[in-house]
Automatic annotation (TrEMBL), chains A, B:
EC class: hydrolase
Catalytic activity as recorded in UniProt: a monocarboxylic acid amide + H2O = a monocarboxylate + NH4(+)
Name of the protein in its database record: amidase
Annotated family: Belongs to the amidase family.
Length: 570, 570
């Protein structure tokens, strides 16, 4: 029995929650109204071709086909959302071959398909997106040039990002009518760069699941296999991007929330070194918490689009002009070594990865073959004992205020505490520690950060320095809803603030090849929680995305390395 | 009556403290032994010319004359320490006109004079400095090039910086025999760059006074007027640098600890944006505290030396290769505007500056005249009410762990709690707050940081953006020992993490011109504490240093602006 099969929790305060139910209903009706108003016939057609929620929830359906081959989009629409990179979209607008409105309409359609298939949308912004697209077309016509480097490019936004004049609730029911006055800095930047915003996507309750499930819209499905989870907390984004519902999306990551979703849905995700992108004017239950900072980052279908996003965001957007907590570090030209030295972490010494993950990693390593130097980290990685100390520190830091900040946002609505929220609130036993304790944990965190630098990324008499570390993103190839229990493969890099890119592989869980659990389990509670009920049939269609890590502020170099790796893998 | 005239506090635990007294005596004897061993005759000569401690403590003696004109140094020694910039020292070594040993010997002599006049040294490193200098001379001879960009340049070090194989106690008596295994990252860097380390300088108890007084060596005097304070907590450094006892010094600043000492002793000091320089492997009672981060920074006799220090530290030293918490931001070429727009803050709306400070600021502003655009911030600065909220937030954050981290270092020796330590421990009433409260204060801090950016450093419909803000460094022209009570003019910029350079003016307190307190005092406890006993005669010889602030990460631009300002003031 899995968490997912437990009945979803009851409201903590049923009477209070009852008062919010009409607001939730209204919130969700607005979505239907916008889809209908945009194109009622198209909506009808989609509903006829896309299975019901019940079927999607029960079957391992690859929902991406509804965009790529189900005939729901016209040929030209399909070409726009399936074939063109961001740069091509810009070139074609400049050449007069496509208009911003055509692009926007195509992406609105694919976003509607995404919504029907995966339930990834919190709020559509269809009317304003169309208006914006028309303005951009007019601008290009009148000025003979693009408005900016994201002219007419539809971007999807994790809903926790403040959006001026719109409800921004971050999936907290208590904030269901919280209309904000300021857009998040990233939205302000992309607005100035010419982007179009057509959809705001879902995040889980508390924004702290590696899954996407909340009390406002329910659960989001994985496009690769609809009965699976799209990951989280940016699972609305990963579903949207994987469904080709936007050209690129913005998520955020404090424990894996960009990288797990990217891996689970077979797309690219970057968790940059923190403070390079701005998170200002967003809602978060961890506001003011600085021990493990969160960061925004892109989720994309290609490493080129992801790189372009970072380039224009930093070099033309200059977040530091809006947000004084942002670092003044442009997106810098970067090179990688002729022969890249990659340390491979097959196992973090706490939780054994699933057979599919192990197989994918082995295959990738053998494909990289001669062109890369591969160093197996099995003997040099932190021991189980060290990793327990590190992971428990991470867990304690997430809940170190005794969850007061989170409960302050959750409690006022009386909403049910979902199973993975409960799981999270119980990290570090949910204990409130003292500021003194917090400092000691910060010091321990920094010693881990230093150990990483000295053991792996510095030349030493006994070992060559690594350029990058390749590892699983998550123990499983995607996950059963409600079952994303172990964060360690990603949260380790949040504690230490080393940047990573997750990239898709061509490997997918295969119940025939990947049926056997490890013969011997490690003796720790995390291993046990992951392996207690291994059911290889449940993971059908789950893709394996891998995680490449570099030194702090080596974001640019990691992107270059992933380009090189993925070109070899092709 | 001033705090300074109170008798120094009794040991908290006299029996315990008694056990440490022989260790303290031994620690201080080593200093005498090194001076004697270096040159007993020279020491004798110095003692004959420099007044006794009692006289120095009682009179407003300008001790700088002992280096510049008292005949204690030979002509060539005097030239080395009084006339040459760092770059000239390098050039002359390369040209064979000076050796590292000559330079080191001259600076050791001036450091000995500095010690006798101001009591600024915790520990000399004379034998190893001489040995190092000889090695450098040999290197140059054998290789025909300098070892590095600080070849043979004597640098003084705030003692809290770890020094491999030496006691590092940060003025905590409990650590008086704490021999450390690792040098601080900055020392490692300057070692690689070819510097010579000959002296480690004093800091106050808890490293949290704007003064320099501890239970190991007592109080440090101000070279400009020996009965005054050299500021703190890097007052050992400021005294040393102002006495020409080192070519340049390294201090640290969490509330004014580089800038007050620089202003009090008429030299330059930079508090960079945090995390640009590394503070790794140092001792601090605030370790693990992240709400108001501390930073290291240079104290120098010229802005050119200061700039050179930053350039080689960042561009050749690359602290991020040692310290993974350091930002990867090189020292960048920077330009300032043709006509610089400076907002002038004559008064922070909490504490009225002394007449001497006001006069200096007014004079400087009128000297800047046509070449700069001056904007008086009187009407646009934060109100008294806002400033109270901001300053009280700062004070609370300093002691937010209920001083547990500090007391853990102070208590084991039973050492007396000095009056300014008591003053500091009582910031925010010394109350231990919760992590939840800490987060709220962090959020408030960031809103202040943002308000600064939006109100002053951004273009708006109603105002032009400022390039820099010019303000007092401290309410008084230097300070009476034990009387540095109000930190607001500097700590404001620690809370918000905006970088500043302090530069000397030619203005000094004049009891005739500066005798009158303000006719009307502001109604708040800080104003009251500063003005309750104004005695204009006490400040004779106190110089006024001013503080120039720029946007976060505009460190390079501030340095350029200070160059321009000081060239106009000349």
């Amino acid at each position: 029995m899995t968490l997912a099969s437990e009945s979803i929790a009851q409201p903590v305060d049923a009477a209070k929650f009852k008062q919010f139910e009409p607001l939730i209903a209204k919130y969700n009706e607005a979505k239907w109204a916008q889809m209908k108003e945009f194109d009622a016939k198209f909506l009808e057609l989609c509903r006829s071709k896309i299975p019901s929620d019940a079927v999607l929830d029960a079957e391992p359906i690859d929902a991406r086909k509804f965009v790529t081959s189900a005939g729901l989009l016209s040929e030209s629409e399909a070409q726009i959302v399936n074939e063109f990179s961001i740069k091509e979209l810009l070139d074609k607008q400049l050449a007069g071959e496509l208009s911003a409105e055509q692009i926007t309409r195509a992406y609105i359609k694919s976003a509607i398909i995404a919504q029907l298939a995966t339930n990834c949308v919190m709020q559509f912004l269809i009317p304003s997106a169309l208006e914006r697209a028309k303005e951009l077309d007019l601008y290009l016509k009148e000025n003979g040039k693009l408005f900016g480097p994201m002219h007419g490019v539809p971007i999807s936004l994790k809903e926790q990002m403040g959006y001026k004049g719109q409800v921004t609730c971050a999936s907290y029911v208590s904030l269901i009518d919280n209309v904000v006055k300021k857009s998040s800095v990233s939205i302000q930047i992309f607005d100035k760069l010419g982007a179009v915003f057509h959809a705001r996507t879902s995040q889980p309750q508390a924004i702290m699941h590696l899954d996407t499930w909340n009390n406002i819209i329910g659960r989001t499905r994985n496009p690769c296999s609809t009965r699976l989870s799209p990951g989280g907390s940016s699972g609305g984004e990963s579903a949207m991007v994987a469904m080709h519902g936007s050209a690129i999306g913005i998520g955020s990551d404090i424990g894996g929330s960009i990288r797990c979703p990217a891996a689970f849905t077979n797309v690219f995700g970057l968790k940059p070194t923190t403070k390079r992108l701005s998170s200002m004017n967003g809602i978060s239950g961890g506001r003011g918490q600085e021990s493990i900072p969160s960061t925004e980052g892109p989720i994309a279908r290609s490493i080129q689009d992801l790189e372009y996003f970072m380039d224009v965001y930093l070099n033309q957007g200059k977040p530091w002009e809006y947000d004084p907590t942002s670092l003044v570090i442009p997106w810098r030209p970067a090179e990688v070594e002729e022969k890249i030295r990659i340390g491979v972490l097959f196992d973090d010494n706490l939780v054994t990865p699933h057979p599919a993950v192990k197989r994918a990693l082995q295959q990738v390593v053998s494909q990289l073959g001669e062109q890369f130097e591969i160093v197996d980290l099995a003997d040099s990685w932190f021991s189980q004992e060290e990793m327990l100390a590190i992971h428990n520190t991470t867990l304690s830091l997430y809940t170190i205020d005794g969850n007061r900040s989170q409960l302050e946002l959750i409690s006022p609505s009386g909403e049910p505490i979902l199973p993975l929220t409960k799981h999270f609130l119980n990290f570090g036993q949910g204990k409130e520690l003292s500021i003194y304790d917090n400092r000691k944990l910060n010091i321990f965190r920094d010693s881990t950060k230093l150990a990483l630098l000295e053991r792996f990324f510095s030349q030493s008499p006994t070992s060559k320095k690594l350029h990058f570390i390749l590892s699983p993103t998550y123990p499983a190839p995607s996950e059963i809803p409600g079952n994303s229990l172990y964060w360690g493969y990603t949260s380790f890099w949040n504690l230490t603030d080393y940047p990573n890119v997750v990239f898709p592989t061509s490997y997918t869980h295969d119940p025939k090849l990947d049926s056997l659990p490890p013969t011997q389990l490690k003796q720790n509670e995390f291993e046990e929680s992951v392996w207690s009920n291994y059911n290889p049939d449940a993971y059908v269609g789950g893709p394996v995305g891998l995680q490449l890590t570099g030194k702090r502020f080596d974001d640019e170099r990691i992107v270059q390395a992933v380009k090189k790796i993925t070109s070899v893998l092709k």
